[in-house]
Specification:
Oligomer: heterodimer
Number of strands of chain B: 20
Strand order of the largest sheet of chain B: 6-7-8-3-9-10
Strand content of chain B: 25-35%
Order of helices and strands of chain B: EEEHEEEHHHEHEHEEHHEEEEEEEEEE
Order of helices and strands of chain A: HHHHHHHHHHHHHEEH
Distance between the termini of chain A: 46 Å
Helix content of chain B: 10-25%
Largest sheet of chain A: 2 strands, antiparallel
Radius of gyration of chain A: 24 Å
Helix content of chain A: over 70%
Largest interface: A-B, 24 and 31 residues
Largest sheet of chain B: 6 strands, mixed
Number of helices of chain A: 14
Strand content of chain A: under 5%
Number of strands of chain A: 2
Number of helices of chain B: 8
Distance between the termini of chain B: 39 Å
């Protein structure tokens, strides 16, 4: 093959690759596009046949209407409170238990870890009824602690943090021990700052997971005042009909904190990776 | 300032024993180097002194206090690690201040100590940098600074120069020595590099396979190795070893090696006539002469100041160090002579020094 035909060949390959990637990206973007465009249609147009790709008239005030028709601010606060609390508790608990699994020596540690990991095999949906019974007997139905506590202690976080902690050089901890740091001080001052990539990832996953969580808050929160966003959105679905355009507008609004957090943490994760290049002082 | 005394220290991991009852003492203000090949237990011993490894049996005493059960922070020691173990997320200043902050020193006191250490180690312009922004030698100095600020009774070094290039290693060797004379603190230093041991130590502890082979000043050990292992380990190029039988011929004591070459020995070898021994000869105690044992040159390694000559004498490979420039080339025949009074005689089986 000559150089020229080779460069033509690689150009064709590039075009093909990027074409395929663009196609897949469009496929993934389409639901978002559909959500946003339906959010600014009239409800009649949402269900009208034939389907129009772009709205006939852009009804931008649907966002404001969706926000005011229901106590959306309240739902927003509820979701924020639940997702943030779960995230904070999960990160703290995962760091503590992950550190214990990674570094402390105690009898039965590895067996306990295996048992812990085994719980990942149990589908979460199977636990809903037993969990509800427990929450009910503790008198936590329709309370925030009832929504938050059962989901804040997860196996995944402990395992993720353990794996990350194992990658931190032992000598750093030994140096800190000689410097006079206790176990807890080592965790707080040395291990946690060096684990920001993992903590960022765990926070992101946990927050978005809880922000979008529908089933558990639906079951525990019986009063409409305590509803989280995903639950609140269903209130547009009534016996008189469904306000699809408002649901879409609400859904679009509710996506914003997750997107914002992802962008925010992306930077943190990048920075932390750069920091780790110098880990161990090497 | 404190002395360190180790009495019969044993370390075992399960059924595997890595230190078999080691006893050694470092006097107050002494620079002691633990040296030996990989896996000899020198780092383990150091980590036991630091409190990073438990002590299976025996006693470690720092400044007259048995520290077996004490946490590292209670032992009044500081340690410099091979990887430096600087906290990557802290500046040089915070790295050095960390231990002081933990012991709740006042801000002013911390600042003074960090300043003082930075001044000693020429780190002042680097105080606000992060470890990743420093060169290897600078990181090494920060690691030492972290030790200095605490005024520990004992400094422990675990192969601190292994990650540096050759030139920097020589420089840092000097800096650590200078630090020792300045602080007059007890220092225990682990290395596998016999050159570091020779150049830095007040006393060297040579270890092998979890045991101490010899303790002594560098020249004591160099001139009078207690066995063939120490003789071979200390000194570069290594000591030459020749197996043979001591015989007497015409009133002179001679070693006849396995190939039949006759090596003159000094009078002190007279006691071993008729015995099979191993003779150790330092490369610098062999000379190229006009008339002597016939040898063939295998390889020539000029270093500039001296030349290392690999030769063969009756099938026995020998290394010679000469200071004069050499006319001979590879494959040429030369004549050599070993200084009979400076050979060391070892037991052929046990390797123990006889003379």
């Amino acid at each position: 093959m000559t150089t020229k035909s080779r460069s033509r060949f690689s150009l064709a390959l590039d075009v093909l690759n990027h074409g395929a990637l663009t196609l897949v990206a469009l496929l993934f973007l389409f639901p978002f596009f559909w959500m946003v465009t339906n959010a600014v249609r009239s409800n009649a147009e949402v269900t009208a046949i034939p389907v129009r790709i772009l709205p006939h008239v852009f009804e931008w005030d649907n966002f404001a209407k969706a926000w005011t028709q229901l106590p959306f601010g309240r739902f927003f606060f509820n979701s924020m409170f639940v997702a943030s609390s779960v995230t904070v508790i999960t990160v703290i608990v995962s760091c503590l238990s992950g550190y214990a699994f990674a570094r402390l020596k105690f009898p039965g540690r590895d067996a306990l870890l295996m048992a812990y990991l085994g719980t990942l095999m149990v589908p979460a949906i199977m636990l809903i009824i037993p969990l509800f019974l427990i929450v009910n007997s503790l008198g936590m139905v329709n309370t925030f602690q009832g929504v938050i506590l059962p989901v804040a202690f997860g196996t995944f976080g402990a395992f993720l943090m353990r794996q990350f902690f194992l990658s931190i050089p032992m000598e750093l901890e030994e140096a800190a021990r000689i410097d006079g740091a206790s176990r807890l001080r080592i965790l707080v001052s040395i291990i946690v700052p060096l684990s920001m990539p993992a903590i960022g990832l765990l926070s992101l996953f946990t927050f978005i997971g809880q922000w979008n969580n529908f089933l558990w808050p639906l079951i525990v929160m019986t009063g409409s005042d305590n509803a989280t966003l995903p639950v609140g959105l269903t209130y547009f679905q009534t016996q008189q009909g469904t306000q699809w355009n408002f649901i879409m507008a609400g859904a679009a609004l509710s996506m914003l904190p997750g997107v914002f957090l992802a962008i925010l943490l992306q930077k943190l994760i990048y920075n932390s990776i750069a920091l780790n290049a110098g880990m161990g002082g090497r | 300032m404190a002395s360190v005394t180790i009495r019969n220290a044993v370390k075992a991991y399960g059924s595997m024993q890595v230190l078999h009852g080691v006893s050694v003492a470092a006097r107050d203000g002494e620079f002691v180097v633990l040296v030996g090949p990989s896996g000899c237990g020198k780092s383990t011993l150091l980590r036991m002194i630091a409190g990073l490894e438990s002590i299976t049996d025996g006693e470690i005493d720092i400044g007259g206090r048995v520290v077996n059960e004490l946490e590292p922070k209670e032992r009044d020691i500081a340690m410099v690690f091979q990887s430096y173990a600087l906290y990557p997320h802290m500046t040089v200043r915070d790295n050095m201040a960390f231990s002081l902050k933990l012991s709740r020193k006042s801000k002013q006191e911390i600042e003074n100590e960090v300043r003082r250490a930075a001044e000693i180690l020429a780190l002042e312009p680097l105080l606000d940098r992060y470890p990743r922004q420093l060169s290897g030698g600078q990181r090494q100095r920060v690691a030492m600074g972290r030790a200095i600020v605490r005024h520990p009774a004992v400094f422990l070094f675990d192969e601190p120069l292994s990650n540096l290039d050759a030139k920097l290693r020589v420089q840092m060797r000097g800096e650590i020595k200078a630090l020792h004379s300045r602080l007059k603190a007890t220092m225990i230093y682990v290395t596998h590099d016999q050159m570091e041991a020779m150049t830095m130590a007040d006393r060297i502890v040579v270890m092998r396979a979890g045991k101490i082979e010899q303790i002594g000043s560098p020249l004591e050990i160099y001139d009078n190795p207690s066995n063939s292992f120490v003789g071979g380990f200390i000194g570069s190029p290594s000591m030459n070893f020749i197996d043979g039988t001591v015989i007497e011929e015409g009133g002179r004591v001679i070693l006849r090696d396995v190939a039949g070459t006759l090596w003159p020995l000094g009078d002190k070898a007279r006691a071993y006539i008729g015995k099979s021994v191993q003779v150790g000869i330092r490369p610098e105690h062999i000379r190229i002469v006009a008339d002597g044992l016939a040898a063939t040159v295998l390889n020539i390694e000029p270093t500039g100041s001296e030349t290392h000559l690999q030769i063969e004498v009756g099938g026995q490979p020998i290394v010679v160090v000469v200071h004069d420039r050499l006319a001979a080339g590879v494959g040429d025949s030369v004549a050599i002579e070993a200084d009979p009074d400076r050979v060391t005689i070892f037991d052929q089986q046990t390797g123990v020094r006889l003379s």
